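Could someone model magnesium ion with this protein?
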Amino acid sequence: MHELSMADAIVKTVLDVAEKNQAEEILEVTIEVGKLTMLNPEQLRFLLDVLTKDTLLEGAEIIIEEIPVEINCLSCNYKGSTNLDDSDHYLMIVKCPECDERNLEIVTGQECNVKNIRIEKPD
Amino acid sequence: MHKIADVEIQHDIMVANKKLAQRNQRILDKADVFSIDVLGAIGSGKTSLIELLIDRMDEKIGVIAGDVISKFDAGRFQKYNVPVIGLNTGKECHLDAHLVEHALEDLPLDEMDILFVENVGNLICPVDFDLGSHMRMVVISVSEGDDTVEKHPLIFKDADLVVINKIDIAEAVGADAEKMVKDAKMLNPDVEIIKSSLKTEEGLEKIIDSIKRFKENI
Ligand SMILES: Nc1nc2c(ncn2[C@@H]2O[C@H](COP(=O)(O)OP(=O)(O)OP(=O)(O)O)[C@@H](O)[C@H]2O)c(=O)[nH]1
Ligand SMILES: [Mg+2]
Ligand SMILES: [Zn+2]
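Reply:
Sure, complex below.
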């Protein structure tokens, strides 16, 4: 799967921002991962550990927040969360909990967002 | 002295890819090129279908062939004397908008009407990555088993056209093509679904008509 390219993009983004902010150390990184992306948080975490070795990011605490799926049903206008069968990563099927239709718009759950970092920098 | 600071980033990698995809679409629009993503399972007939379309459609066609080792599919297209860019995805399981952007730079867009972008054979990963095309065609075949659609709902949700290929061998592999049609309809009520055999060319005219219709309505 593509956790590797994602992890790579995350590391580049964080290091870039850290440098622009004269960070001497990165203490914490928060990443939001939508439940509907084809990304497995555990695999992502493992790869981030590998990729951050010998960078400013090494040793930083990596917080992965899973973003639940919210939908907008085009059949009955229901807005909100949905029932996900996530017994298997690939079997997730989204449908409206109100009317059971699958004619819907996904509002959240597709993100891979580098949210923020906590850094140490000179005064 | 040191201080601790929280720095807001809010950089969504998915959104960044989407933005690049939108830029790709603007480049295509400017050159008046209609672009079609061709996604699907490994060996479902993506390359075979594009080859037939190059041959039968009365349009100037170009191809971006994404593959783990690109020279195989790209080599097949080169025989048709159309502009082809092979993209090596290497260990990656999908094309992304950035790779496509570079391929667009190398294609003679002004001399093309239609661009086919063949993605890596994979029903999972490409879902997350818009490339900037105008139409998404998903090609699967009966030989993957008639539960393929149910198992990979997301790729069908965003499809404009679903081709269920190799119906000539459905009986031999014990697959029910009608079930696949029904599953795809349930996931995406508006999607157009065409059963085809690229061996007998059944369904090929319908696929061509569907592409033409989409192209006109763009
Ligand atoms: N019987 C039968 N065989 C087909 C049909 N369409 C394609 N094939 C065969 O299926 C095999 C794979 O076809 P390709 O067109 O290379 O499939 P692909 O989806 O491009 O494969 P990858 O790019 O490797 O994922 C070839 O041997 C084709 O001749 C069909 O409708 N019926
Ligand atoms: Mg191919
Ligand atoms: Zn509903």
